[in-house]
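thread from #wetlab-drylab

HS: before we spend reagent money on co-crystallization trials with nickel (II) ion, can we at least see a predicted complex? here's what I'd submit
DV: go for it
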Amino acid sequence: MNIKHYGHSCFSFKTQNTEFIVDPFITGNPLAAHVNIKNIKADFILVTHGHQDHILDVVEIAKNTDAKIISNFEIATWFENNGLENLHSMNFGGTYTFQDGTVKMVPALHSSMLPDGSNGGNPAGFIIKSEGNTIYYAGDTGLSMEMELIGRLDQPDLCILPIGDTYTMGVEDAIICSDMVRCNKVIGMHYDSFPQLEIDKEASKRKFAAANKELILMTVEETLVF
Ligand code: NI
Ligand code: MN
């Protein structure tokens, strides 16, 4: 699987037959200003919650690619009311099966109002299983006991966790989260995109290393083969 970073919380996952992108926020992110979103390919767009820094480019990518949007019922309905037709709604505990694997929706401890004030349902994360690997994409979340359940049931090979603090977990809680989900390989997200999310990247990596864990911080448009 190829995992490509598009800044903030946006990543694309490319498996043998399928490409999906999660939480596209590219055109509003100064750190991703050089990305041409017209070049992005996707079969699916996964959306964790309704905040602008996770949905800004959903409509444009959906129109360019005809990708199916996978999100909670409220957000899927909102996109439907905004003229999109290729949608799949789900909720916690639900699993969507695609050609190369599955995506399960799990809780996140956050909020989810849509930009126009509409109810964005409950915020989520995703457990992605494909090509023998399990990835936990946490979405925006604080530390939560629900993460113990992920450790019990899924034991991810890789997790993608917010580390920017302020609106989500910071580094210390992300380390505890990785313990709870029983995973020592972490890609960080949701940092540095705004002044209030700036982190000391080297210090953050050292903190993970001190806990015998690896923190991977990808640059925009970097691809990790996993
Ligand atoms: Ni958020
Ligand atoms: Mn956010």
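DV: The pocket of manganese (II) ion (ligand 2) is lined by residues 51, 53-54, 140, 167, 190 (CB under 6 Å).
HS: ok that's useful, forwarding to the group
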